[in-house]
From TrEMBL:
It is an enzyme of class 4 (lyase). It catalyses: N-acetyl-D-muramate 6-phosphate + H2O = N-acetyl-D-glucosamine 6-phosphate + (R)-lactate. Pathway: Amino-sugar metabolism; N-acetylmuramate degradation. Homodimer. Keywords: Carbohydrate metabolism, Lyase. The lineage of its organism: Bacteria, Bacillati, Actinomycetota, Actinomycetes, Kitasatosporales. Specifically catalyzes the cleavage of the D-lactyl ether substituent of MurNAc 6-phosphate, producing GlcNAc 6-phosphate and D-lactate. Belongs to the GCKR-like family. MurNAc-6-P etherase subfamily. One of its GO terms (molecular function) is lyase activity. This is N-acetylmuramic acid 6-phosphate etherase. The active site is at E96, E127. A lyase-type mechanism (elimination/hydration) is suggested for the cleavage of the lactyl ether bond of MurNAc 6-phosphate, with the formation of an alpha,beta-unsaturated aldehyde intermediate with (E)-stereochemistry, followed by the syn addition of water to give product. The keyword Repressor does not apply. InterPro entries: Etherase_MurQ, Glucokinase_regulatory_CS, MURQ/GCKR, SIS_dom, SIS_dom_sf.
Amino acid sequence: MTATTPDNYGELRAQLATLTTEAFRPELAEIDRLSTLEIARTMNGEDASVPTAVAERLPQIAAAIDATAERMARGGRLIYAGAGTAGRLGVLDASECPPTFNTDPDEVIGLIAGGPSAMVTAVEGAEDSKELAREDLEKLGLTADDTVVGISASGRTPYAIGAVEHARASGALTVGLSCNADSALAAAAEHGVEVVVGPELLTGSTRLKAGTAQKLVLNMLSTITMIRLGKTYGNLMVDVRASNEKLQARSRRIVALATDASDAAIESALAAADGEVKTAILMILADVDAATANDLLTGSKGHLRAALTAASATPSSPATPSSPAP
């Protein structure tokens, strides 16, 4: 890590002065004199501009998703890498995939500069190290089927850039998500996604609009990738992991919405399917037993629609008599 000197500070200040996310807004210089309601209205108006900025980058986002899904279908992983707010957003998105899509915890991974403790406490200097990013990726045993998404509002964070550079040199797919145009991060990645949201309400506080934009894009990356991988049936989360009472109730509701079956049929199918929602739906809709449903899903690589098509062309092993016809 390079030692900080007055000359370094001068260079960094000059760099920050060129970034849209760091720009000072004179019209907001006396925002602290406004009423709470006026500040809230101003902030809400700022936030409303974020979806439009994301919409301008949808073609780039879609291309990154298709490339990610292709690699994950071959067994690759989705790995986020960032520092500070950006790193926390990546860890958050990764941590929500197992309960939502029944992914293995090692399939979608969030790396934050400084390690897990940096989620709640700043780790000084960690974001400034490209070497630290390389070490974190090497610990994961990076492969060419993996996708690494570097996240940085400024687009200049060494940790995020280092992660993308190392991943690309290793043959992995790379995505650079930033909130400034012509960023070093986007230039380093195969897929650059620059969502330019403009200067922040508080000068340089990129946990605001930039953070919101990053969260929206990460939502798309993980969710649409999982849709492409067959983790949903229509807009139903058929791979949901029923790990608590709320999710158990949601599982039954999902089966009901997909099949319009009776409560008794739903309970019977879920019991035979060991709680697997997708298996239970296929059992009911195709009128097959759990073993046949699992074989059909395996043959269709987990895609329920494809399994239903295969079932219609295959002699069935009937499920319980109480299961209604599709």
